[in-house]
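Box 3.1. Reading complex inputs
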Amino acid sequence: MNPIRIWTLSRVRFWVQLLFFVVTVYGGIVVGPYAADKITTALPALSCTYDRQNSAWCVLRPFQHQTSHQIGDGLAKTGTLSWELVRPLGWSLVIFMGFFLVLNKGFCGWVCPLGAFQEFLYGVGRRFHLISRRVPESWLGRLRAVKWVMLLGVVFGLPLLAGLGWLPGAASEAWCRICPSRILTTLLTADAEQMALAMGDHGDILLGVIGNGLFGFMLTAAFVVRQPFCRICPMLALHAIFRRLAPLRLVKHPSPRCGKCRNCHAACPMEIPEVALPDPQQVFHDDCTLCGRCVEFCPADRVLHLRWGPVTLYRSSAARFRVRSRLELADGSQRRLHSSL
Amino acid sequence: MVMGAMAVIGWGVVGLLMLMSSVLTAEAKASGEDWTPYPRLRKEVKGRSLVRIIPVGTTASTVLLYPSSFGRDPTVTPVTLPVTAEGAAVMVHNGIGNYHWIAVTEEQEERALTLATVHHFGMPGPAPSVMLAQPKSRLEIIPEPLPREFSTYRAQERWVFRVRLDQRDLPHHPVTLLAPHHPKQNLSTDPDGRVQVTLPEFPQAALQQPAPGARPRRPVQPFQLAVEAHVGPHHLITVFQHEYAPPPMTNRHPLLGWGVTGLGMVAGLQLWRGRKEQQS
Ligand code: SF4
Ligand code: SF4
């Protein structure tokens, strides 16, 4: 058997994702219950703190708590923004960066349990030959803006206002209240509490309805749309801010075919059209999760590269593409691709 | 005749007194004031790094503090805090760790009582497992584990505690669970010296809504686990006190949660309809 056929990048990634899924959802059984036992309390992926068996904590909850209880509360009491107030947030960011610099946006494509879960559902959709929908390119601009609203408005803005006392307490962790990872990972550990709607004040109910509705939508939409939740995820926006600082990245040496075959675009779980353009500056996009599918499905030699600093980890190759496309279409369907090349 | 009237009046007065005392006892029970025969520790959290510890019902004049790095870092030793004239020990976070074991001891002739609790400062620090396992008194109740950060003990949850005497596990030994508004529960350690404790129901009376405009706070109630042992002439008593919150589903509606999720699923299902897209 051809070893390339066995060990395609997608297959390696599948096993890595599965491993991290188990580690991030259930790994606390091994590492221990306390925060200090966790691999980190500022992981650049949605390993949920509500999951009592997890092994690492997503950075977004400390960000919200520090913004609300430290900065907001402190500002309300003292009226001035001091270094003391922002220091905890700064520390969380430093720890986050320590991890982020290793894998960059690869935390989305390789580590995040929610990202892996959505890919799994889409894979099931392909296996059962369900319809596959792509987000119309005319919508992309507006859709891409939503993740920034989520990061700046919901992760930082609402908790700050709650800390200042201008919004109800529920808003102090507004993002967690609507985050699908909270419901998914707790359900997977046989804990149905987060699935039940919080019935405290209006803020509780409103955020609960949005959260449960979003979770339900993601559950069924992910069978036919790729990564429906990732498109609006604030973690994606947070990664985008720092992506130029980390050495792992997607690099393109454009060929004359670029912009014509668009296989890379078809393969991309985030459906980023820019990856197919000849302009190498645009290829490593805000929304890229460094999954490497575009590299795998590029039919030209040495055009797309996954690089860690100066080291090429994986690059496109016509031979690999031929083997790869025998197994799967670029869009994930299990059929033969009729390449124009 | 007169004697008969006096007897009736006498019994009437006795009956009235008994009735009054039972009403008063019921009131005291309802307010949860007489829930423990042991001393208690009251905590007043005054901010992220300041807590006042108020020992109630004990003559102890000092409070001992064990930071979470106790046992890991040989330079870290317990800190002795004086109980001031106002009856409180002031505990300021000294930058060492997050969890702090707080203990008061009271010794009267052959009787030695240790009362302990834990406070968690929301600061970075090591896991408290090593600190908890360090010997701190002859007779010990050790939580295995403590509720982690962002969490607490909750009603009707089951938690494990280890009971040790002179650093040896104490099998088949009686342990008492005490909580306001609940009769005391007699439990026992297993052959390994562990006791499984199911926290009692959360009293309805304590589930008050916050005052209008006030920040909502998680309602909590205290509980104590107590163990006693006689070693030679010594009577050792150890009490672990902490607080517990209402059970997980309080103020939550499971059916509505599933219902709203179902609506979201139906919305997502709309995307399943329509013509299959052309494959590339
Ligand atoms: S709810 Fe979401 S954002 Fe909050 S801690 Fe969990 S994974 Fe992170
Ligand atoms: S964008 Fe997707 S993969 Fe990345 S953190 Fe969010 S849910 Fe996870």
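In summary: The interface with chain A takes residues 48, 98, 122, 124-129, 145-146, 148-151, 215-216, 248-249, 251-254, 256-258, 260-269, 271-277, 279-280 of chain B (CB under 8 Å).
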